[in-house]
C-alpha cells in the first residue's frame, strides 16, 4: 500500500525538518524503543518524520506492509545515496557517513549491476560448507568457553557472543581467526557500525578498507578455499575495489548483527520462564528463542536507507524526490496490523530481520548466520548446563544505538569446569 491515510505536507525546500519530526535517540529510546515506535504510530501512522544525528530530516517507515512495499519497489525507493536531497547539509565527519556515503559497494548498486554483484556474493557464500562451518564454530566455542569456564563467571557479550561470529566470519573470508590484526579489524567494524561516544567512525571505516585491501592483494597472489578467493576468481571479473567494498559488507553483516542475535537469544533463554525448564540441552527451545528474537529484539533494528527516486506517497505521507527513508525493521516486526492480539508467533519466520526484496541479505547468508548463532548458543548451554544470569534482568542495559539492538553486557555465573 502506498497511501494508507491522509497526506501531510512534506518539508519545503530549505526547511530544516519535516513538521512534527521526532529525534531518534535519547536514553528512553535506547532502552525501550518499542514505546517510541508505539508513540510514533499513534501520532504519525506507518511513516513518521524523524531527525537523525545533527537534526538531519528523514522518514522512519514503521509499518510491516510499508517496509515490504519500499523494499519491493526499487524503481521508487532506490539504494544509491547520491540521490539524497540533504547532501549540502551533511558534514564530511557526520557520524552516519559510513552508512550513507556512496561507495562502489553492492549495498549502493541498482538494477542489473546489483544483480551482478549480489550474484558474485551468493556464489562465494554458497561455497561455504555449512556442516564444516558448524564444526569450526563448535571448535571456536570450545576455545572461548575454555578461557573462562574455570572461573565460574563470565561476561558473555565480549568474551563469547562478539568473539565467536567474528572469528567465524574472518576465517570464512580467508583471514586468521585470531590475533591482534583481526581484533583491530573487529574493533574498527564495531566503531563504524555502532560508534560510542569519543569514537571516530569515519577513521575506523578507513582502517577497515585498508585491511581488506591487503587481504585482496594476498588472495590474488595466493588464493585459497575461502570467500575472498572465490570472489576474485568469479567470471564477473569484479575489480579489487568492488571486492573490498563487498567484503566489508559481508563481514559487517556477519559479525555484529550475529553477535547481537546470539546475546539477545541467551538473554531470552536466561530470563524468560517459558524457556527455563528446557535451557539445558533444549534444542527445540533454542530454535524458538532464536526466531523469537528476530521478531522482538532483532539485531538490526533500523536500516538506513532508501532514497526516493521521484515524488510519491507512502503511508499517507508525501515523499519528495531525494528524501531519505529509514527502514524500521524492529517496528515493522511488531506492527499491530500483523499481530492484532499482541502475540508474536515464534514459529512464524516471516519477519523482516534480513530485510526484503532485491537488497535483502543475499542467500545463503541468513542460513550461515543461523548456523553460527545456533551453534554458539547450543555449545554454551551444553558446556555450561547450569549457567544463570549474574544480575537481575532489569539491570541489563542496551547499547546506545538506534541501529543495532544489543546488550552492553551479559554477566553469567555457573559451576566452574575444570579443563
From TrEMBL:
SUPFAM superfamilies: Cytochrome P450 (SSF48264). It comes from the Bacteria. It comes from Streptomyces acidicola. Gene3D superfamilies: Cytochrome P450. This is Cytochrome P450. PANTHER family: CYTOCHROME P450 YJIB-RELATED, P450, PUTATIVE (EUROFUNG)-RELATED. The lineage of its organism: Bacteria, Bacillati, Actinomycetota, Actinomycetes, Kitasatosporales. GO terms for molecular function: heme binding; iron ion binding; monooxygenase activity; oxidoreductase activity, acting on paired donors, with incorporation or reduction of molecular oxygen. Belongs to the cytochrome P450 family.
Amino acid at each position: 500500500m502506498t497511501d494508507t491515510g491522509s497526506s501531510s505536507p512534506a518539508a519545503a525546500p530549505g526547511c530544516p525538518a519535516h513538521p512534527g519530526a521526532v529525534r531518534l535517540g535519547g536514553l528512553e529510546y535506547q532502552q525501550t524503543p518499542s514505546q517510541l515506535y508505539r508513540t510514533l504510530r499513534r501520532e504519525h501512522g506507518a511513516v513518521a518524520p524523524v531527525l537523525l544525528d545533527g537534526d538531519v530530516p528523514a522518514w522512519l517507515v514503521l509499518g510491516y506492509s510499508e517496509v515490504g512495499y519500499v523494499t519491493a519497489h526499487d524503481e521508487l525507493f532506490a539504494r544509491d545515496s547520491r540521490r539524497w536531497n540533504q547532501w549540502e547539509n551533511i558534514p564530511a565527519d557526520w557520524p552516519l557517513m559510513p552508512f550513507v556515503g556512496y561507495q562502489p559497494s553492492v549495498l549502493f548498486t541498482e538494477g542489473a549491476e546489483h544483480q551482478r554483484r549480489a550474484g558474485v556474493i551468493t556464489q562465494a557464500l554458497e561455497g561455504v560448507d555449512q556442516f564444516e562451518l558448524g564444526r569450526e564454530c563448535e571448535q571456536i566455542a570450545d576455545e572461548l568457553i575454555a578461557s573462562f569456564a574455570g572461573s565460574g563467571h563470565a561476561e558473555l557479550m565480549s568474551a563469547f557472543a562478539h568473539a565467536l561470529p567474528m572469528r567465524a566470519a574472518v576465517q570464512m573470508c580467508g583471514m586468521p581467526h585470531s590475533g591482534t590484526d583481526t581484533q583491530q579489524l573487529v574493533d574498527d567494524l564495531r566503531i563504524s557500525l555502532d560508534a560510542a561516544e569519543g569514537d571516530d567512525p569515519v577513521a575506523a571505516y578507513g582502517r577497515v578498507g585498508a585491511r581488506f585491501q591487503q587481504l585482496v592483494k594476498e588472495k590474488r597472489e595466493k588464493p585459497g578455499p575461502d570467500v575472498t578467493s572465490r570472489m576474485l576468481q568469479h567470471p564477473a571479473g569484479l575489480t579489487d575495489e568492488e571486492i573490498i567494498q563487498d567484503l566489508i559488507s559481508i563481514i559487517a553483516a556477519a559479525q555484529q548483527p550475529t553477535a547481537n542475535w546470539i546475546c539477545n537469544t541467551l538473554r531470552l533463554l536466561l530470563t524468560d520462564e517459558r524457556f527455563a525448564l528446557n535451557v539445558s540441552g533444549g534444542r527445540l527451545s533454542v530454535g524458538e528463542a532464536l526466531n523469537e528474537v528476530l521478531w522482538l529484539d532483532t539485531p538490526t533494528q533500523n536500516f538506513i536507507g532508501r532514497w526516493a527516486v521521484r515524488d510519491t506517497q507512502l503511508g499517507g505521507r508525501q515523499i519528495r524526490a531525494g528524501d531519505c527513508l529509514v527502514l524500521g525493521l524492529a517496528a515493522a516486526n511488531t506492527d499491530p496490523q500483523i499481530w492484532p492480539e499482541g502475540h508474536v508467533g515464534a514459529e512464524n519466520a516471516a519477519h523482516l530481520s534480513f530485510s526484503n526484496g532485491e537488497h535483502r541479505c543475499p542467500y545463503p547468508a541468513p542460513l550461515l548466520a543461523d548456523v553460527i548463532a545456533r551453534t554458539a548458543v547450543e555449545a554454551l548451554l551444553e558446556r555450561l548446563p547450569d549457567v544463570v544470569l549474574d544480575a537481575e534482568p532489569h539491570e541489563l542495559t542496551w547499547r546506545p544505538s538506534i541501529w543495532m539492538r544489543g546488550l552492553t553486557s551479559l554477566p553469567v555465573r555457573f559451576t566452574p569446569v575444570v579443563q
